[in-house]
Here is the input.
Amino acid sequence: MNKKLYVGGLSYSTTQDVLKEGFAQAGAVESAIIITDKMSGRSKGFGFVEFTTEDDAQKAIEMFNGKDFDGRKITVSEARPMEPRPRRNFDRGDRGFGGEE
Here is the structure.
């Protein structure tokens, strides 16, 4: 099992410190990060927590998945590698508005 966990459904007000401190109940946390929007800096409502051991990561899944955390019911699962996304070609007039060229 991976030591890095995906945490979804977070409150937009949850901070990285709150995330790290909360998940430390399950074991030694190496890092905790909340993903933010590049333009606004606002939380996207999900993040990642990495544990020192796989056992601690598994314990965190059991402790927190489907449970209330900072006022929201969260989803906790093993993190998967990001899948490649198709590149957006902006130099052809493709602006993502759904219109025709």
Remarks:
- The chain has a mean pLDDT of 89.
- The two ends are 46 Å apart (CA to CA).
- Residues 54-64 form the longest helix (11 residues).
- Residues 8 and 46 are 4 Å apart (CA to CA).
